Amino acid sequence: YRYGIELTQPLFRAQDWFSYEASQFQTEAAEAQYNLAQQQLILDVATAYFDVLRAKDTVTTAKATETAIQRQYEQAQERFDVGLIAITEVYEARASYDDARSQRIAADNDLNVAKEQLARLTGEYPDAMENLRQNFPLGRPEPMDPTSWETTAVEQNWSIQAAQRQFSASEASLKAAKSDHLPTLELSASYQESSLENALFTQQEGNQSIVSLSLTIPFYTGGGTQAGVREQRSLLTAAEQDLNTVRRDVRVNTRSLFLTVNNNIETASALEQTIISRRSALDATRAGYEVGTRNIVEVLDAERAYYVALRDYANARYDYLINSLQLKQAAGTLTPRDLIDLNNWLSAAAPGIEALANEKKTLDDPTQ
């Protein structure tokens, strides 16, 4: 019989080490992409939910506008029948009513589309929706310094971290390609044992142990190593450009979102007063029409302006919420906890915009 065993252990093979290092960075890049996808899902679901509420409020104001203008149209018809106004005012009211009706139909369709989008993300069709409480506070971003947000984003944004890990992986891959020029050193150990019979039928036994070092020096590989180095160097340049682009985009986006959130707060505050002013203007215009000092066109314009203010106010609040979440995502701080906190401000009992559309003059939430 004869048997043997041989073991080989690389002592120095730089290519394997750098390839392992590159794979580690690629794993970290994949983890960063996963975290980014998780944040994007949080943002997508929240955006889809508030888009449904936004569309629902648009339907509410569109219906209220349609009802109010229909009432003006009917009154104009009655006043014309008794000879108090010209037929042109009836035509004006009718045209405004038809326009309001078409806008309400479009709003109904937008609501259905928004619900389908939310259902696509959640797997459930939204029937009953909880409204955002009217006393939801529109707080300023903390800290109130765009540079601080920008610094946090550069350090924690998952897009930047993924690009950074990919750049590091490309660096390691380039080193691995260059290391093909380097020698490799291996330790080999073998053991062999045999027991054989010779021609005289005598048993001959023996064993042999060998330990050796093997040094391999690549003198010429046909240009393959150089080609691999050039390829990896090009990939490294592309990864560096991608990293710089992502950093620049995140910086600009973070600062822009910071300014946008603050603008949303100012806009909502201004529209809150606009609602009250336009409601007063609408009441005065209606009264003036009754005594003959205002015409039907002015009444219809006042009706539309009031309900547009209601719709814009609701949109400003939803814009604030979505942009605040986007700001946190840009900074890399968005977590499921943000959705939980936001959910605490939703209530099935909160009336939403219909409390104002039903000619309510204040912004108080009757559920509070």
UniProtKB/TrEMBL annotation:
It comes from the Bacteria. This is Type I secretion protein TolC. GO terms for molecular function: efflux transmembrane transporter activity; porin activity. Belongs to the outer membrane factor (OMF) (TC 1.B.17) family. PANTHER family: OUTER MEMBRANE PROTEIN TOLC. InterPro entries: OMP_efflux (IPR003423), T1SS_OMP_TolC (IPR010130), TolC-like (IPR051906). Keywords: Cell outer membrane, Coiled coil, Membrane, Transmembrane, Transmembrane beta strand, Transport. It is found in: Cell outer membrane. Residues 97-131 form a coiled coil. One of its GO terms (cellular component) is efflux pump complex.
